[in-house]
Amino acid sequence: MTRTRAIRRWQRLACGIAAAALLHFGPAAAGGREPFGDGLLWRISGKGKADSFVLGTIHVADARVSAIAPPVRDALARTRTLAMEPLAETFDARVAELEEFDDGRRLEPLIGAEAFAQVRAELLAQDVPGRTIERLKPWAAMMRIARQPRNGGEPTLDERLLQAAQSLRLRVISLELVEEQIASFDAIPPDSQVALLMHLLRNRDALAATTGPAIDAWLRGDLAALARIADRSVERHPAMEYHYRQFTRHLIHNRTLLMHHRLFMPLRGGGVFVAVGASHLYGSQGLLSLLRKDGYRVTRLWPP
To answer: The whole model's pTM is what?
Structure first.
C-alpha cells in the first residue's frame, strides 16, 4: 500500500471520529467562559523563534469546509513543518487487526442480538466482511457506522493541507502513532463503548442533524458554539452524560496532551504549522491553553 493510501485510510477514520465528536465534544465547563472559544487560525510566537501557527480543522469531506482559506495558505507558506493527526504508514490489515477483539470476545453478546443485527446489516452494506463484524470492538463499530460518506470524492481540509505541504516540500510529522490512537479508543470503558454505540443506533437522525450546525459554527470560527451542541445533546439524554465525558476524556483531552508533548521540540525551533481537529483547541484543557502556559504568545489570526 502506498503512503497516500495509508494516509487516506486514517483520514477516513478521522471523519468517523469527527462525526462522533460533533456530538461528544464534551459538555462545556459549567460557570464562566472557557478560553479560546473563537477562532480557527492562531499564531504561536516565542522570543527568538520563527512564528508557528495552529489551525483547528474539521474532518468532514464537504466543499464548504475543505477549501484552504487565504490566511491559512499564507501561514502554511511561512513554515517548514506540517504537524498533523495520524498519518499512518501501515497496512489496512494492521488497522483492521487493532479494531478487532483478540481475546475471543464477540460484539453480539455485548450489545444484544437485535442491535447486532442492525450493525451487521449496516456494515455488510459497507462491504465489511461478516467475520470482521463479529469481532469488532464496540467503538470500532460505532466509528464505522458514524463515518461520514465521501461527497463525490471531496477531500477533507486535512488532505488538502497535506497536498499543499507536499507541494511546498515541507517536512510532515504525525502527532500521534496509529497504535496510540487505537489505545485511546480502547481506554474508553467497555460499558461506555457499548452505551455510545447503542445511543448512535437509536438516535441516528437526531445525531446526523447536528452536522450542519457544527459546520456552520466551524465556518464562523465559533468553537464555543460547537461545545454548546454537545451541551444540548446531554440535556436531551442526561443518562449519557457519563459516557460522553468518558469519550471526551480519552478521545479529546488525553490525545490533546499527547499532541502537546509531541510539539514540544518542534515548536522550540519555530516554523511549524499545526493542523488538528478544532475540538483540541477549545477551553482550558485545549492545546492553545497549554501552549500559552508554556510561555508562548497566542494570537488569533482568522476568522478576524
So the answer is: 0.89
